[in-house]
Amino acid sequence: MADSSAVRSSRDDSRGDGPGGKRTDPITFLKQVVAELRKVVWPTQQQLVTYFIVVMVFVLFMIALVSVLDLAFGQLVFEIFARDGS
Description:
Elements: H1 5-14, H2 26-39, H3 45-81
């Protein structure tokens, strides 16, 4: 079965060859990475602490919710299957 030209061209693009057909050398790549990282707006320490607290509260809430549901469903299953026949 022959590949269509669209399949071949998408395969060529996935190999890292850009529209010009040349690959970026590692030094240029690292320079571009550093340039992009300089554009990032980094959070302040206060924002970081706030985000950390929000995430921890959410995670603890989800742990509690899943634990309660696990205990409730476990008890329900136990009640259904562990009846002594009376």
